[in-house]
Structure formats: structure tokens, C-alpha cells
Amino acid sequence: MSQGSVLIMDQNRDLAQRIALMLHQQKWTSVLSFDQKMAMRMLKGSRFHLLLFDAYDANGATIEHIDQIRGEAQDAPLAIMSDGGGRGNAINAAMNQARVAGADFVLPKPFNPEKLKNLLADTNAYHRARSKDHNILVIEDNEDLRNDICRVLKQVGYKVSYAANMEDAFFDHNLGLIDVVVTAVLIPGIGGIEGTAQIKSDFGHCKVVAMSEGVDATITAVHVLAAAKAAGADALLPKPFTMHDLLKSVAGVIRAKDDPAEDLAQAAVDAIFAR
Question: What CATH number matches the domain at 5-130, 3.40.220.10, 3.10.20.580, 3.40.50.2300, 3.40.50.620?
Fold first, then answer.
């Protein structure tokens, strides 16, 4: 599954194709355009997560048309890239001009896959900051329990997606847009402990609520959840649990002391269980 879509605008076709390949390696799709007119036509018919435009094309400076680009781009951030004609001072000047003109990101050329990866992470953060909803990913192999968890989280007002295992979570979902992962620990495949460690390593903004029963009388839920905590889980939920406990755990990991939405979310939780 694609992590997101990028509209590339660069008159250098070979470079545009190399950028598209780097994006593909990051599991992002791309659409190529080679001048501003072509890019504007594509913006009219499609929606993108990121616009990655060269500072210049044959028709002049991109920054002179930023307002027009914004008018068609909907909520996609704009990243301006430039090599400044190969001159260091010119690159800095072009980047500064782009910032002043209103570009969301700047990317000096040439850049490597790591620089592009950082830009994609910034793009995800840009969209998270503008989302009115908290995005929750539920990872649970028990279908009945998974459905119950998703239903209650949606009832409170969270935006919810789900996966049956960690492999599906990483392959089918853009974790860069997820705020909280609610995961079972004892699941087939990668498992919740290794998966939690990977989530916290690759997507540090994600909060993780780990839920588990014990393995047997010797390895109890306490032991399993202690391992999840060591892997980076932010909250622990022994199975079986009540849905009220689940919602309190989720609200707790996303709570900000001065966030008015916190009180509204908690009021919604309390209202449901007061019925």
C-alpha cells in the first residue's frame, strides 16, 4: 500500500525519474510533471499529499506562482527544491526566496534518500498537525475483540483503522499519520514486542498502548506487559479489560495538559459509560 502521493515538477526528466524511484523505495507513489503548466493540469484532477517542485522551469520561477499553486493544491504542502545552478550561494538564495514566498519546505539539490525520507516525515507531521481527529490503529488478531475495540473508539470520535498483525500494520498503513497504536502483544508473526520497538524507533511520535493476557501460570500478563514496556509501550492494558479502561488508556497517552480537546474527549467517555 502506498504511504502517500507526491506530485513532482522538474524539467530535468532524468532527475524527476530518479526522485520517483527514491519515493518508490520509501513506499510513496509519484506523478511526474516537467513544467508548471503540466503540474497545474494534474493538480486540477488529483489530490496529493506533497508537491515537490523545482524552483525554476522554462517559464520562470515557481515562487512567482505560489498563490496559484496553493489555490489548486488543497491541503498539500509545497516543497521547493533547487541546485542554484550549481553555485552554493545561489542555492541558499533560492531556498531563502522560497521560504519568504511561502514554501512549506525547502530541499537543496542534490539530495540523498535520507534527506528525502526526512522530508516525507515532515510531510506526515504537517498533515497530523492539521487533522482535527486523533488517528488510532488497532492491531489485534482476535476479530471479535478487534471489532469491539474499533466500535467503541469510533463511538467516542476517534478515527480508527485496524490490522490483524504487525506485518499488515506496517505494509497497509502509513504509521506516519497515526497518533496511537493499540496493539495486542501476543500476536502471530513479528509480535507485539518487536513491533512496538520498531514503531517507537521509526515513528517516535506514535504512542503505543499494549494489551495482553499471560502465557501460562508462570508467564503472566504482568511479565508480558513488562516486556512491552521495555520495548517502548506508553501504556499497558492487561486482558481481559473493560472498554472504559481501554478508552482511559488511549485518552491518557494523547492527553495534553492544556489541550481543551482533552476535557471534551473525557466527557464523551464518561457520558458513554454513565448510560
Answer: 3.40.50.2300
